[in-house]
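Z., the sequence and structure:
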Amino acid sequence: MHAPDPSAPPAAGPSAEPSAALRRVVRDYLDHLTVERGLSTNTLASYRRDLERYLASLAADGVQDLAAVSPAQIARHVARLRAGDAEHPPLSAASAARAASAVRGLHRFAVREGLVRQDASRDVRPPVPPRRLPRALEVPDVLRLLETAGPVGATGPAATLPLRDRALLEFLYGTGARISEAVGTAIDDLDLVEGVVLLRGKGGRSRLVPVGGYAAEALRAYLVRSRPTLAAGGRGTPAVFLNARGGPLSRQSAWAILRRAARRAGLPVEGPGAVSPHTLRHSYATHLLDGGADVRVVQELLGHASVTTTQVYTLVTVDRLREVYVTAHPRALG
């Protein structure tokens, strides 16, 4: 017989239900995130799933009170996430880190509310996911993508949707907006005279972002020659971007528009390097930094709460600079 591995996480004990007290703390924490932090429905659903699994892990260890949780039990829970079990496949480092973040947030909340005296999660380090650089298109690829959506000067009934699609893609690349921000933009948020738009981002944060000349031209063409036709089929909505029935364009439909344009432009839509909903945003940030923009200005334009989030784009531009140097400098290679 093989001796048990002392470093392996112990198997979960007999099935047990989390206590009402534990469930109440989690419910209060999720309410706090909803009201005070303004997290999206999808993020809240992820936190709820992560915390349900955490409560099940505590119950399996016989822990029914948050004050009785030890750092070792939290570390063991994270290890279980990475290892998987009969009901759950192993989580990637990124997914386990997200789940650990939910647990740490719960414990910090409990301390602030006076429910426990010490934060048992304080010294538990979540798994570090591998650093993945954002996917950014080269400028010629972006231009080809935009042009395949449809010409800005198109007229007639057949131009209604192409004008919308071109305006949407120009808007995404010209402002760095997330797709959710683009489809959430209202007519009153857009000022093409001043060339700015008010984007409503994560956590209820809003920011004013310049709208470039090409994006403004595409938006004017859409607003004058396309949107009135689409709006006539709907019940009236302030959204800038409308679907074929006159209602607000959904995130899924916006993603489909980008996917169709990418396919027509000969860009990958499956597998490694595939064009994704964030591709134009990544390209916007990378091209700004390539052009000499200050990282803190790009941080404000992207709506990042921390400059650390934005600095990942500087890694992309350094790689690009290194590539240019190696290919162009006569003494780069020994």
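The CA atoms of residues 296 and 307 lie 6 Å apart. The radius of gyration is 24 Å.

Let me know what you think.
H.
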